[in-house]
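Hi R.,

Here's the chain you asked about this morning:
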Amino acid sequence: GKGGNGEDTDFTEMACPFPSLTDIQEEVTGTYKDAKAAFDQVLHAFVISPDDIDRMADKIRDAKVELAENYQKQVKERQLVV
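And here is the predicted structure, written out as tokens:
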């Protein structure tokens, strides 16, 4: 039909003011993926694996043995001085 300015207007050529269902679906999918990634990062930031616990236990055990050895060495040295 004719518009107010004398030009032919066709409603099929006019942009829809609302996003398409595909656009909405893509936006929701992207938002979900971003939220899931953020949640996973926060969740896994505080996770300690059994291997991590074993390594820490080994370091503590090694430090305990080293401390005991150093203590015994110092006790023997003091006995020689007296």
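One quick note: The mean pLDDT is 85.

Cheers,
M.
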